[in-house]
Amino acid sequence: MQHPDHLERFRRRQLLQRDRTGQLRTGLDQSRIPRSDPLRRSVERHLRRVLRGVRAEHRLYRRDHRIVQGGCAHDLGHRERRQDRRGQTEHERRRRRHRHPDRPGRPVRHERPAGRRRRTGRLVPQAQVSNTQPAAPRPSRRRRRLTTHHRRPAIMLTSPAVTVPETSKPVGLARAAIGLMQGLFLYLLFKHDYLFASHIRLSALLVGALVPVLAISSLGHVRPRLIALWCALAASILAGIGWHATWRETPALDGAAPLLYWPAMLPLVFFFCVVIFFIGHSLVLAAAQDRRRLASYATHFDIAWKLFIQLLFSAFFTSALQLAMWLGAILFELVKISFLSELMKSPLFVLPLLCCGFACALHLTDVRPAIVHGIRNLLLVLMSWLLPVATLLIGGFALCLPFTGLDALWATRNATVALLAADGLLVLLINAAWQNGSVADSVARLVRLAARVACVLLLPLTAIATYALALRVGGHGWTSDRIFAAAALLVASFYAFGYLWAALDKGGWLRRVAPVNLAAAYAAIAVLTALLSPLADPDRIAVNSQLARLERGVVSPDKFDYYFLKSESKRYGAAALLRLKEGKTGPNAALIAARAKTALETPDSGRRFVEQHTVKPVDQLNVWPAAARLPDSFPLSVWKRTDDVPDCLTQASGRCDVFAIDFDADGKNELLFIGDKSYTSPTVFTESAPGKWTIMGRLQGMARCSQFVERLKKGDYKLVAPRTRQIEIAGMTVQLNLAGAGSAASCNQFSDGDPTSGD
Which portions of the sequence form the region Disordered (predicted)? Predict the structure, then answer.
């Protein structure tokens, strides 16, 4: 078979010939110099000489290229050498006859160690070379001249920058073995948790789930020593992130809720770690591919997209494998054979199987890189044609803002998230159209124009999102969610200013996108790593912000959210609550200390501890019928969220419709509270004693039912006695829910015509 080095050299020389021909001839054809000009004629003559030399070199290469069967030697000499019994050719015998007589025993001048390539490119097998064997003759004079004056320059190919990895059988077996070991490790972690202490369990999960994938993807691409260093660094970082995530959720108060088996932030931490090491692994593979610390952008682009498609299809393959195994188990169950179903219920079988399947899928996608490259090109072309549509819609939205104002946008309470999503979509589609910058001539003019406009749109969208977040922070301080939004805006600002800089460039089409993307990648790694570490922990920053507002008097001690410190901000909030209990904070230190002590003594049942809210009847309650009014004895400030009452009784933003209805026919009206857009069931309150109102019952299935509320407002209802008697045992009544016609179990059974008919 042909040696890959010679095939690569021959292919690149062909590319060189086409490159020289296309560049030089295109430059002459587009020039304004007339053909009769002497300078142009001299340039054309020089071009013809250069091309003749390149073609002559290729003819010599094709003529001399012969494959030696049964060995690894490639004979690239000028003629076949016939060796005598001493292993010398005719040319070498002539050279020995003309040697200087004073140096008869001196070794041959072109002697090389065994197995090394000589100047002519001939590689002799180890068994056929001795330390005294003479080297092949030097190339002819014409060949030396062509080789010297027409060396291959460094050109950037348009083909994928990712070379075919070493996908030999040992590499595939090593990847499968790593997958099996990963599955066994996860089995021990999930089923034999006593082997792992609670404070290292999350670290073990992150290391066991991500580091083997890094090793599998690196095999065949990166040197073993670099793989070991990279995996060790990744394991150290993941272990630190897991330890901090566990520490911050460890209870710091006596009587607090115990730590769950896994921290509550596990999904978010795992997602951030996947993003961090996806970007980092792409950078490492690109550097190893180009053999330099900072690889070219084309290599970064090709490797990142290849890795993304590999992971996507590997996850799909693993899911399909599990589905196929379950289908096989069901088929065997039909014939009363249950061994496969029992295996599928065993984690000792399922986890190694799925991990090994994922590793094999990664190996298969490495064996066929052309398929991955084709899928990537198809995906990018399809996505690039979405760019004009997205640019038109988002640009129209931006143009409408000066006429509609920003009040409607602030009223949604999620303007920052929506604008960040628009930023992310535009960045993705711009990169899908631009790719690695080498396809600018093949991209449609409409797509190129839309990409340039989209680069400009990023800045106003990011600015509006930043302003929206600043308003929320100025009014209510920092919270964990707002800190995550600020981190996303920081990365979005890199893209916004960088892409605007690229759009204003009058050179190549968005040629400055490449350095901006690389800078944003490093910025994303730094920001996400800081969020998962004590350096920029969202809970720590949020607690400090809320305490500062309390100390400055921006928020009164009565309205301060002590539950946020006790249960929502983990260890940082618990420590702050203990400091507030000491009574050394702000001018209202005594009141703050009393409130903090109450919060600490309140049992943490998982529900929110807040101060009592005073209901404003005029603003929050609409009493029906119109002539009715709220009884003076109804309390407005004794309700808590722990009572599971409508939001209007516990929050200033809640609204309720109140209906005065005599449910028990005692001559006194009960009050039916129905929250506006609330998921709490309508609640009936009764006055059990003078001035003491309690909950009488709830109407299940009628929450957020506008048809039910409208019929009550119109008076289109009647009160009927129960048709059946109920069972009472030991003073407790067993509820009987009637079935069939005449019973409304849900809001969907109401209609404009017949209340008993379904939709």
Answer: 14-40, 72-154
More confident of the two residues 734 and 260: 734
Distance CA 304, CA 176 (A): 23
pLDDT of residue 745 exceeding 80, the answer is no
Q: Which residue in this structure is represented by tokens 């015509």? A: 753
pLDDT score for 128: 41
The rounded distance, in Å, linking the Cα atoms of 116 and 121 is 9
683 forms bridges with which residues in the sheet? Answer: 673, 698
* 656-661 and 621-624 strand pairing: parallel
Q: Determine the residue type at 473.
A: V
Q: What is the pLDDT of residues 488-547, one digit of tens each?
A: 999 999 999 999 999 998 878 888 999 999 999 999 999 999 999 999 999 999 999 988
E strand or H helix at 703: none
Residue whose structure tokens are 């722990």:
642
Q: Are 120 and 73 in contact (CB under 8 A)?
A: no
| Amino acid 36: pLDDT | 67
pLDDT band, very low/low/confident/very high, at 696 (cuts 50, 70, 90): confident
Short-list 404, 375, 355, 387, CA closest to 457 = 387
Pair of tokens at residue 666 = 């005692």
Asked if residue 638 lies in contact with residue 610, where contact means CB atoms within 8 angstroms, the answer is no
* Tokens 């299940």 sit on residue: 700
- Does residue 503 contact residue 452 with C-beta atoms inside 8 Å? yes
Place of tokens 């094709």: 62
